[in-house]
Amino acid sequence: MAAPEAVKMFLNNEFPDIKIVGSPSTDNTRQPSKEELVEHFMNLRAQLEVIEDDFLRAPSRGKTRHPGLKYFSALEWLKFSEMHLRQKIRLDLYLKQSGIY
User: Fold this and answer.
1) Is 88 a member of any domain?
2) Is pTM beyond 0.85 here?
3) CB 17, CB 89: distance < 8 Å
4) Which one of 20, 39, 70, 99 has the largest count of C-beta atoms within 10 Å of its C-beta?
5) Rounded to an integer, what is the distance from CA 65 to the centroid of its chain?
6) Which residues, 6 or more positions from 64, have their beta carbon under 8 angstroms from its beta carbon?
7) Based on C-alpha coordinates, what's the Rg of the chain?
C-alpha cells in the first residue's frame, strides 16, 4: 500500500507545491545537464508510450517499494513518472522566466 502522501499525489495527479528534501546521501550526486535530462525524459516517455497499454490491461499484481512513499503498482509508477515529467516542464519554465537559462 502506498503512503498517504503518495495516495494524495495520485488522486491529484501531481506533486504537492512544496520542496521535498531528499536523503543527505545524495548531496554529492552529479547533476545531469539540461540536454541529458531532456534526452532521458524523451526516451523514457517514448518507452512508456509503447508499454502503456500493457500497464492499463494488466491486472495489478504485486508492487515495488519506493524509498519514501512505500509501495507502488505498475500503474502508479507510470503515473509517478508522468508527474515527474510535468514537474520538469514547470521547472524549465520557471528557470527560463527567471533568466537562469
Assistant:
1) yes
2) no
3) no
4) 70
5) 14
6) 71, 72, 77
7) 15
> Could you tell me which of 94, 83, 91 has the C-alpha nearest to residue 6?
83
Domain with 78 in it: 4-11+34-97
- Give the count of domains, the chain: 1
pLDDT, tens digit (0-9, with 9 covering 90-100), for 38-89: 899 899 888 888 887 776 777 667 888 998 899 998 888 888 988 988 888 8
b vs e for 13-32, b when ≥16 Cβ sit within 10 Å of the residue's Cβ? eeeeeeeeeeeeeeeeeeee
Instruction: Let me know: does 76 contact 5? Beta carbons within 8 Å.
Output: no
Q: Which of 66, 86, 90 is nearest to 76 (CA)?
A: 66
Q: Residue 83 domain-assigned? A: yes
**Dist CA 32 CA 38 (whole Å):** 10
Residue 54 lies in a domain: yes
CA angle 25–101–78, rounded 5-degree value: 55
Asked whether 72 and 3 are in contact (CB, 8 A), the reply is no
The single-letter code of the amino acid at 39 is: E
